[in-house]
Amino acid sequence: MTDWDIKKLRILRTLADQGTVTATAEALHMTPSAVSQQLTNLARQLGVPLLEPQGRRVRLTDAAHLVLRHTEAVFAQLERADAELTGYRSGESGEVRVGAFSTAVPVLVVPAVAALRLTHPGIELRVRETEAAESYELLSAGIVDLALSLAAHAPTARDTRFTRITLLEDPLDVALPPDHPLAAAPVLRLADLSADRWIYGGSGPWSEITRSACEPAGFVPEQAHSASGWTAILAMVEAGMGVALVPHMVSARASGVTVRTLTHDRPTRHVIAALRQGTEAAPALAQALKALQQAATALG
Q1: What's the whole-model pTM score?
Q2: 107 DSSP 8-state letter
Q3: 3-state class of 7 per DSSP?
Q4: Average of pLDDT values for 95-108?
């Protein structure tokens, strides 16, 4: 395969633009003899004559014009690559792979994607819905660049593989059936709902969150129904089947139920972003994190 030398091809293109070896040398800050030597070497590499005498000057051969036709396409592609690389270095372009738990996708990740399309259209977020344990496995393996999870489900701050950034405090609200006796109560505490039937996950994080929120209020919530998806939980609340603790990220978008803010001792969970140690300075990743932080601020 022919050995194409970009530097020598630039000299040939400059000669085509300038017309003479002397002018080419001046434009490229070279000596005329260096220009001639480089073009002689290029002709040897390509195996075709590139210059022919024309009086006291030289002119390009047909082979040289053929080479230049292809060279222009090469240089155009190199210019595009250079522009994209410049954008990548400045954080204007690049791909960021995000693993996020289901609740965070519509309220944090989607707004961040929309914002980046306006401010940094060259940055693409690739989103993957994940459970907490999976997201950190993917992050450690380099399959995702950024993981969103609850702080309670994340590796501890002592895990030096990751950098953790708190995005927001997400308080828990109570979802009540619209005809619940306390739906319009001026003051509402968790203890006021100790005799109610509750809807929450049968096991895992959400079961723990509900129980740990209610126990300081003096009761263990009676689990009438078990569900892990917010659509199912809110549908059962709307049908009068029980009450539920719902994160504000969800309750702010809920319909068909009465959402009440707890007056005292409102439980809170923390949403964090995690990335591999040392990747914080990657420009596109920094812009993606900034967009997520802005989405979290707007939500708060």
Answers
A1: 0.66
A2: I
A3: helix
A4: 93
